[in-house]
Design goal:
The protein is of the alpha/beta class. The protein contains 18 helices and 16 strands. The protein has helices at about 1-30, 40, 45-55, 65-70, 75-80, 95-110, 135-150, 165-175, 240-245, 265-275, 305-310, 330, 340-350, 370-380, 395, 400-405, 430-440, 465-470; strands at about 90, 115-120, 155-160, 185-190, 205-210, 225-230, 255-260, 290, 295-300, 315, 320-325, 360-365, 385-390, 420-425, 445-455, 475-480. It has a 14-stranded parallel beta sheet with strand order 1-2-3-4-5-6-7-9-11-12-13-14-15-16. Strands 8-10 form a two-stranded parallel sheet. Helix 6 runs parallel beside helix 7 (about 135-150), helix 7 (about 135-150) packs parallel to helix 8 and helix 10 (about 265-275) packs across helix 11 (about 305-310). Mean pLDDT is about 80; it is low at about 270-285.
Length: about 475
């Protein structure tokens, strides 16, 4: 493996080195000493830089720092002197003695360089029994003690696990031992199915997936990205706590709420339940959240009444990209999908979330009436890219309102600026039908890119239909498993 890397680097640098050598010979004549091998003539600084590029650009065995350090004595010396190639520490279940030994060696050899740490304790044989399953915490505790000694060098930290136990022990250990983590930029704690130190000046991205914190005393400040995903409703922050967190992040540009968000004021929920279409937004500035810097908003909801209530309290004047997803089916596959018509109707009529500013829109698992989709689409007049994934057929047919909904009283074209379309597991007959209708409208711009992805094996994809789709776009891409 090492010789493969050597040959690649040799090919890359041989031309330049030969030119330099030729110039030197012209100036100073031939060299009296025997000519050295290419890599023997490279200065240690150049060789060190090559190692760094190789380790950052590839995860294969040939670019592993341990492999590089065992090629020859000189390479070993250069590799051990280059702390930046030893900064990625990975531990996976089950944590073997060799993994622990490797992690400790990387901690030592990385010197003072920032660390990227991944601890993945997911067990592929887990039987989904939380109480009976015990993670190998003893081994993790050993390495965690070593990692905490270098917490001032943590740059990225990610912990993945099936159950709560390791996350609980991690939170308990770090809460009392971490005083400052000046280099920390990103942390992700995921239970795949209250942390934060008091001083995290460089932390800009936080993703909490099935993991909650002490919302009232967390250090969620000055973030540019915040993700709250798949939390139980009884562990979410109050609306006041949520508002306070966002107020401390004036430069937040990306917000994702998948599942339950903050606990809403009772008046908002009551307003939602008493309305046939959408809740009446509360006018008091104390119950609304203004997010002037947010450009991207991802929202996955379990309950449409809650969804309307939360949306009525958020203001996105600069929103550029939005993703809407019905995750109720994901949470409980036995339930039927929600009717998202009230949510779409509320958004279409909302002044606090101006859909006319959107350029990128994604609909995932949405079921709605065609009339609601038409109204919603017409409000998104400047969208240039639309993604529709395992959504109701009307989400496709509504793209051609003059044919698919002739009784509609809507004025104007539907998504007239649309340039890119992405469909996943959608009916190709409906797609062909809608695109042909759009192509017949001279006021609608032709598509620049059309992508179709068929993931489910039962998704019909007649070749003769797919062949016809290429005429509706300058570039057409079709993927199938």
């Amino acid at each position: 493996m090492a010789m493969t890397l050597t040959e690649d680097i040799h090919d890359f640098f041989s031309v330049q080195i030969q030119q330099v050598m030729a110039g030197a010979i012209r100036l100073y004549g031939s060299f009296s000493r025997p000519r050295k091998h290419l890599f023997e003539r490279l200065p240690n600084e150049i060789l060190s830089y090559i190692f760094l590029i190789a380790c950052e650009s590839s995860s294969g065995e040939e670019s592993d720092p341990v492999t590089l350090s065992h090629v020859c004595r000189r390479w070993g010396h250069v590799a051990l002197s280059t702390g930046k190639i030893w900064t990625r520490i990975v531990l996976t279940y089950p944590c073997s003695p060799s993994q622990l030994s490797r992690a400790l060696a990387f901690l030592d050899r990385s010197r003072q360089s920032p660390l990227d740490i991944l601890i993945d304790l997911r067990d592929p044989d887990w039987d989904w029994e939380e109480d009976e399953y015990q993670s190998e915490w003893t081994e993790l505790e050993l390495i965690l003690r070593s990692l905490l000694a270098h917490v001032h060098r943590w740059r990225r930290f990610e912990l993945l696990n099936d159950t709560w136990s390791p996350i609980y022990h991690f939170l308990r250990s770090t809460a009392k031992d971490i005083k400052s983590a000046p280099m920390l930029e990103s942390i992700s704690l995921s239970r795949c199915n209250a942390y934060f130190a008091t001083k995290l000046p460089n932390l800009t991205s936080v993703s909490l997936i099935g993991v909650h914190v002490d919302w009232s005393s967390s250090s969620l400040t000055n973030l540019s990205e915040l993700e709250l995903k798949y939390h139980a409703s009884d562990v979410m922050p109050s609306f006041a706590q949520f508002k306070n967190i966002l107020a401390r992040c004036p430069n937040l540009c990306r917000l994702a709420i998948i599942g339950w968000g903050p606990v809403l004021p009772n008046a908002t929920i009551t307003s939602s339940m008493n309305s046939n279409t959408s809740p009446t937004p509360l006018e008091s500035t104390t119950t609304t959240i203004h997010l002037p810097s947010v450009k991207t908003f991802s929202f996955g909801y379990i309950d449409t009444e809650y969804a309307q209530g939360l949306l009525s309290l958020l203001q996105f004047p600069s929103l550029d990209e939005m993703m809407l997803e019905d995750i109720s089916y994901t949470v409980n596959p036995e339930d039927t999908r929600l009717d998202s018509s009230p949510v779409l109707a509320f958004l279409a009529d909302s002044s606090s979330i101006p859909l006319r500013n959107l350029r990128l829109l994604s609909l995932i698992g949405i079921r709605s009436s065609r009339a609601s989709l038409l109204t919603f689409y017409q409000s998104c007049e400047n969208v240039v890219r639309l993604s529709v994934q395992y959504t109701c057929d009307d989400a496709v047919l509504a793209l051609a309102p003059t044919i698919s909904c002739p009784d509609s009283e809507l004025d104007g074209d539907i998504l007239p600026e649309l340039q890119e379309l992405y469909f996943e597991d959608m009916d190709v007959y409906d797609i062909t039908y809608a695109l042909k209708a759009r192509a017949d409208e001279s006021s609608i711009k032709p598509l620049a890119k059309l992508s179709l992805d068929f993931v489910r094996p039962d998704t019909p994809s007649p070749p003769y239909i797919l062949d016809q789709l290429s005429q509706f776009s300058k570039k057409t891409f079709i993927f199938s498993d």
